[in-house]
TrEMBL record:
The keyword Transferase applies. GO terms for biological process: aromatic amino acid family biosynthetic process. This is 3-deoxy-7-phosphoheptulonate synthase. Its EC number is 2.5.1.54. Keywords: Transferase. It comes from Paenibacillus whitsoniae. The chain holds residues 71 to 334 of 347 of the full protein. Residues 12-259 form the DAHP synthetase I/KDSA domain.
Amino acid sequence: LASRDFHPADTVIKIKGVEIGGEQLVVMGGPCAVESPEQIDEIARLVKAAGGQVLRGGAFKPRTGPYSFQGVGVEGLIMMAEAGKKHGLLTITEVMTPEYVDVCAEYADILQVGTRNMQNFDLLRKLGTIQTPVLLKRGFSATYDEFLNAAEYILAGGNPNVMLCERGIRTFETYTRNTLDLSAIPVLKQLSHLPVISDPSHGTGRRELVVPMTKASVAAGADGLIIEMHTDPDNSMTGDGVQSLFPDQFAHLLQDLEKLAPLL
Ligand code: PEP
Ligand code: MN
């Protein structure tokens, strides 16, 4: 079902007037984690002012270590839903277990499956039983075939609203946190009809690389971007402050993307 052979036309996912996979370049911006109502409200205001369409923020965080901050949970979903509604943005948040799919879908417009859960088949099966759009991140060691098979689980269950997200893979290079596989963007667009989103934040792990790799992703044919932005990155509650853009960088980047669009 994920294959272009089966479905030649691009899939366009329509959510409250925003089209993902169509003509419009969709930008999802926000913090790694929802921290407080004030934080998410202010960041939502900045995402909207910059021209973004979707507010990102994790309420449940998949942390590598068990003692790290794990997210604020359901309260975070509520804070983010309020900020999204107030500022006219869609929202996207990560869901980690099948039991939390329903509550996350109640509050968020798009559900994110993180890289560590790409092959959490119980989670994928559960996501196939609803119609809420899903952003499926590529496992950091997954081949394209494994990635598309993971998407297939959701599609096979009856949910056609799946977008694929390249977020960097593990390579021998240690300078960057991951290696953003730019080739994944045109390859996935060729093999599949599903929208392809790029995550240059986790793909590089370094703020100074997010701007060029965002532009490169757009040039490579991405339908959208998911970018971390924080008002106070140095004091963010996850380690992802080092890859979060400052609000003015985010705003300038979106202006540059508008200039880039007509050239492509
Ligand atoms: C995130 O989006 O904050 C995140 C944890 O992403 P990933 O699953 O790609 O590491
Ligand atoms: Mn993050």
